[in-house]
Amino acid sequence: MALEQEDVRRAAHLARLGLNDDEAERYVDDLSRILEMADRLQAVDTQGVAPLAHPLDATQRLRADEVTEANQRERFQRCAPAVENGLYLVPRVVE
Amino acid sequence: MQWEAVIGLEVHVQLATQSKIFSGASTAFGAEPNTQACAVDLGLPGVLPVLNEAAVAMAVQFGLGINAEIPETSIFDRKNYFYPDLPKGYQTSQMYHPIVGPGEVEIALDDGTTKRVRVHHAHLEEDAGKSLHEDFHGMTGIDLNRAGTPLLEIVSEPDMGSAKEAVAYIKALHSIVTYLGISDGNMAEGSMRCDVNVSVRPKGQETLGTRAEIKNVNSFRFVEKAIAYEIERQIELIEDGGKVVQETRLYDPEADETRSMRTKEEANDYRYFPCPDLLPVVLDQAYVEHLRESLPELPAEKRARFENELGLSAYDASILSSTRPMAEYFEAVKDSCNDAKLAANWVQGELAGQLNRENLDIVDSPVSAAQLGGLICRVSDETINGKAAKQVFMALWNGEGATADEIIEAKGLKQVTDTGAIEAMIDQVIADSPVQVAQYVEADEAKRGKMIGYFVGQVMKASRGTANPQQVNALLKQKLDQA
């Protein structure tokens, strides 16, 4: 399956990536080749094979419901660009 | 044209765990912003989620409570979208293999009948943080304390036909989750949030109309009003030649209307895929059976038992089984006084009234179930009359004694049934009220019935409320008729 520039731009938007025209053109090519690879995988007959949710043949371990994390707000907020009254500040979100 | 509404609900229930679904940070409500958001909740690089066993157990308990299938394997998926209160860029949820399969919930309708609403499935997921849009110099403030709080999203089939049925369904869910103790059910604090799907179609038509989704309706009353408004809106729109568009709307309680969120036409593309950080969750049969055996009696069973075995009216049974604390209180009172009907009357009458006046919840009642049971015993064995019982109740409420017996003794409220003592009081009252006696004697039989009330009141007052009212009545009549 070959992609169009428009598909790449839409995927970039969903991933919040800013692409210039050169990059967009390059990704049309790169991503199309990845999809070709996927097409080859799709061609394999998988009838009767259960879908795989995880490559490891193991099941999820559960943890006991206990509070084990102390408040480290100050440390975490040291690497945030803007904080106020304990809140992380981000560019205004318009609903 | 006759229209009918088709309503389906997605209800998010916050599970009552101590810690988050994938981290050991606290879920306590009301903490300082971001003091309960750890590295996992913040989505910092290199962290790994580990699933909370209590969240799994609670989800399974819910499933068992609605007779749902519990699949052996469930799988977590990533739902990808960007929003500042979702620091990882995806919400960990269960798209294809939820932990709870199809089940059903019985709802009680106003006319006393019940109806079954099918549940499509329920899945576990994490909550997002909170965006605060107050003015921070043109910025938005983010509190991630709520990020990672475990939610159970319960998705119904479109089985409800009116706002009232939808409310009955949420109430039924509310009572199931609070009975199970898997959520505090506190809607004001967001422990239960509801998205409503509404469509209308001409009565009898098979195919469904186009639906609108109303997001985040957070009280029983708003659910009812939002749906009622939305049904009207869609019918009017169609009758005026318009078309319902599939969209997300918000309910504005102040204007009592729903409004389009006017999101861009671009369809959401969440690009779900299995979360590589979490392995499939496999529940062994013994674990599920253990949870099944530890299930408490649920509201629908309790309601039926109160009605059928205790002989309560459908109304009483439904009120008294509506919440677990209410049902437990009532049953404790009933067990200690051995009279279900009197217990029901007192819990819903005197006690409920007083709790209401002081805006207290039944768990905070200053009168314990044992105390109330003890009081009712003294009513049924006629140690005290109804009037004195109310006095004793208030004394218990105000902490004037530990038991009804103690208060009855201290206040001298024991019912006087000694005929001689009552006669003496009557004689005194008759002697003190010559005018009233003369009027009574002159009155004809028809009027006497009313007039005797005055004398009864005087005698009761003289006895400080302790005389047996039936005896007073009978003896007074006898004496006055001879006067």
UniProtKB/TrEMBL annotation, chain A:
<comment type="similarity">
    <text>Belongs to the GatC family.</text>
</comment>
<comment type="subunit">
    <text>Heterotrimer of A, B and C subunits.</text>
</comment>
<keyword id="KW-0067">ATP-binding</keyword>
<comment type="function">
    <text>Allows the formation of correctly charged Asn-tRNA(Asn) or Gln-tRNA(Gln) through the transamidation of misacylated Asp-tRNA(Asn) or Glu-tRNA(Gln) in organisms which lack either or both of asparaginyl-tRNA or glutaminyl-tRNA synthetases. The reaction takes place in the presence of glutamine and ATP through an activated phospho-Asp-tRNA(Asn) or phospho-Glu-tRNA(Gln).</text>
</comment>
<dbReference type="InterPro" id="IPR003837">
    <property type="entry name" value="GatC"/>
</dbReference>
<keyword id="KW-0547">Nucleotide-binding</keyword>
<dbReference type="InterPro" id="IPR036113">
    <property type="entry name" value="Asp/Glu-ADT_sf_sub_c"/>
</dbReference>
<dbReference type="Pfam" id="PF02686">
    <property type="entry name" value="GatC"/>
</dbReference>
<keyword id="KW-0436">Ligase</keyword>
<keyword id="KW-0648">Protein biosynthesis</keyword>
<protein>
    <recommendedName>
        <fullName>Aspartyl/glutamyl-tRNA(Asn/Gln) amidotransferase subunit C</fullName>
        <ecNumber>6.3.5.-</ecNumber>
    </recommendedName>
</protein>
TrEMBL record, chain B:
<comment type="function">
    <text>Allows the formation of correctly charged Asn-tRNA(Asn) or Gln-tRNA(Gln) through the transamidation of misacylated Asp-tRNA(Asn) or Glu-tRNA(Gln) in organisms which lack either or both of asparaginyl-tRNA or glutaminyl-tRNA synthetases. The reaction takes place in the presence of glutamine and ATP through an activated phospho-Asp-tRNA(Asn) or phospho-Glu-tRNA(Gln).</text>
</comment>
<dbReference type="InterPro" id="IPR006075">
    <property type="entry name" value="Asn/Gln-tRNA_Trfase_suB/E_cat"/>
</dbReference>
<keyword id="KW-0648">Protein biosynthesis</keyword>
<keyword id="KW-0067">ATP-binding</keyword>
<dbReference type="InterPro" id="IPR003789">
    <property type="entry name" value="Asn/Gln_tRNA_amidoTrase-B-like"/>
</dbReference>
<dbReference type="Pfam" id="PF02637">
    <property type="entry name" value="GatB_Yqey"/>
</dbReference>
<protein>
    <recommendedName>
        <fullName>Aspartyl/glutamyl-tRNA(Asn/Gln) amidotransferase subunit B</fullName>
        <ecNumber>6.3.5.-</ecNumber>
    </recommendedName>
</protein>
<dbReference type="InterPro" id="IPR017958">
    <property type="entry name" value="Gln-tRNA_amidoTrfase_suB_CS"/>
</dbReference>
<dbReference type="InterPro" id="IPR023168">
    <property type="entry name" value="GatB_Yqey_C_2"/>
</dbReference>
<dbReference type="InterPro" id="IPR042114">
    <property type="entry name" value="GatB_C_1"/>
</dbReference>
<dbReference type="InterPro" id="IPR017959">
    <property type="entry name" value="Asn/Gln-tRNA_amidoTrfase_suB/E"/>
</dbReference>
<keyword id="KW-0436">Ligase</keyword>
<dbReference type="InterPro" id="IPR014746">
    <property type="entry name" value="Gln_synth/guanido_kin_cat_dom"/>
</dbReference>
<comment type="similarity">
    <text>Belongs to the GatB/GatE family. GatB subfamily.</text>
</comment>
<keyword id="KW-0547">Nucleotide-binding</keyword>
<dbReference type="Pfam" id="PF02934">
    <property type="entry name" value="GatB_N"/>
</dbReference>
<comment type="subunit">
    <text>Heterotrimer of A, B and C subunits.</text>
</comment>
<feature type="domain" description="Asn/Gln amidotransferase">
    <location>
        <begin position="328"/>
        <end position="480"/>
    </location>
</feature>
<dbReference type="InterPro" id="IPR004413">
    <property type="entry name" value="GatB"/>
</dbReference>
<dbReference type="InterPro" id="IPR018027">
    <property type="entry name" value="Asn/Gln_amidotransferase"/>
</dbReference>
